[in-house]
Amino acid sequence: MNIERFAALLEADFYAGVPDSQLKALCNYLMERYGLDPAHHIIAANEGNAAALAAGYHLATGKVPVVYLQNSGLGNIVNPAASLLNDKVYGIPCLFIVGWRGEPGVHDEPQHIFQGEITLPLLDTLDIPYFVIGTDTAEEQVREKLAEFHALFAQGRQAAFVVRKGALDYKSKPSFANGHPMGREEAIGQILAASGDDPVVSTTGKASREVYELREAANQGHGRDFLTVGSMGHSSSIALGIALQKPNRRVWCLDGDGAALMHLGAMALIGANRPANLVHVVLNNEAHESVGGLPTVAGLLDLPALARACGYPRAVSVDSPTRLKEALEGTKASHELTFIEVKCALGARDNLGRPTTTPAENKAAFMAGLEDNG
Ligand SMILES: Cc1ncc(C[n+]2csc(CCOP(=O)(O)OP(=O)(O)O)c2C)c(N)n1
After folding, report:
1. 219 and 328 part of one domain
2. Overall domain count for the chain
3. Does ligand 1 lie within 6 Å of residue 205's CB atom?
4. Distance (Å, rounded) from C-alpha 125 to C-alpha 82?
5. Are 357 and 222 in contact (CB under 8 A)?
6. 216 and 81, same structural domain?
7. Are residues 139 and 204 in the same domain?
């Protein structure tokens, strides 16, 4: 279904969400229609954040907001859906548009399989009626469902459209860019060269795919790396958990800016615990590059200042291979919790592959590697 027709049916004028590759048509349409005009469109830090923003919009206007998300983000909305929006609490209407990764019967990556299975049951549990939109859904069906949904909204309830792969389309594909010269993969290559045999925890999306491929190309095996293929925003906490138990190992976290923002509280915990053996790298391309390149707010932030304010004793920002090399040498020479922001360009190789080992194999190899080295 064409996204402009779909959006016209919704008659909404406020959208908040976290980008999803399966909702690219909607995300691109919103960027072209509203850009980042916060009165109409906010790319939120996480999906729960989007639901709460939507609640604020409703409180201020009495109108029905739209929250868009990949089904991976349903977990992040459970709390505001159950204890803020639900009609046994405040009864705040909201339309969710959910990209359905891992739909049963449709091949997808391991991190999407269980989440795909529980997507509709989770909406049932949250008392959010839904309608699944597929490639064969007619405009009339959406119109009819919306009429039903509006009756629910009038009672302070929520509803969802669950969007199958390829169901929404949009004619245009905006391109996103920033002025930084260094690519993410190039930066990761340098960091892996510097980290040697140290354990590495990498973030959700293409960064972990690049780590995997760089190790493959260098014939290094995959035992040093924990690829956080799902659970976006939690790789730095996983790294903290390891660093605290393995004080004699230097642990590297390769985080994304969207992921770091998604659960920014993790930085406060890291700074407060201050493990001297943790290096927290944020690959800041100022975007959710892995799912289409929509911007994050990280281009507006002073991340090293934020890290210092959280208690990281060392924090630097680099934007070139030479400065990254210097920062890595300085980090290896020191024994202090370190934060490195690496400003990166958008984009990735067209032929970037995906891990061919399973998450269970990754976990076993990683744990064995940690064990061997004490
Ligand atoms: C909770 C949750 N919401 C959304 C997604 C979909 N998703 C996968 S990667 C990604 C973008 C990550 O952005 P960033 O951390 O900046 O890394 P980049 O892709 O730019 O390298 C998103 C939104 C997800 N996996 N999990």
Report:
1. yes
2. 2
3. yes
4. 10
5. yes
6. no
7. no
